[in-house]
Amino acid sequence: xxxxxxxxxxxxxxxxxxxxxxxxxxxxxxxxxxxxxxxxxxxxxxxxxxxxxxxxxxxxxxxxxxxxxxxxxxxxxxxxxxxxxxxxxxxxxxxxxxxxxxxxxxxxxxxxxxxxxxxxxxxxxxxxxxxxxxxxxxxxxxxxxxxxxxxxxxxxxxxxxxxxxxxxxxxxxxxxxxxxxxxxxxxxxxxxxxxxxxxxxxxxxxxxxx
Length: 210
Description:
The protein has helices at about 1-10, 25-35, 55-65, 70-75, 90-100, 110-120, 125-150, 160-170, 205, and strands at about 45-50, 75-85, 155, 175-185.
């Protein structure tokens, strides 16, 4: 229990990364697997994660990220992109995976398929996109906490031009929209923010126990 809290105290929104330090392939794979295992509504995972290490691409992204240095100095940039729309194939593909993974005949999953489609297919396009974006944020949060367990620093970032990211990364033609960004790497010793105590609401202010 102590380590659970310690990881969260250690983690902070890194303002300055040490650009000479890179996340190892092994740790990156662990981080991505932790992200893959994240919960999502119905298990559908209506998002995609683009992992950027190419420095030229990072430079382009920085120019549309308010010039923030984390984009170019971090080891990798994880762009969480939500589906902008979806149809029945989202459910069909998932249940095909369920059937294959758990050795269940697809016809045995028809009831669950019909249930999910009844809840999702009639949603408006705006509601669908809002829902998929929320799902991306769940995976994003899991990635951030997994990174803390690996002692990899992160900076959650919403300060960027989503449409420009979509163009640079070729997301529009893939039915994706850049929703939120996680810069990952290692803190610079020059980052004074790391020494500041966390500022959070008290338990009394934040929680209601009924």
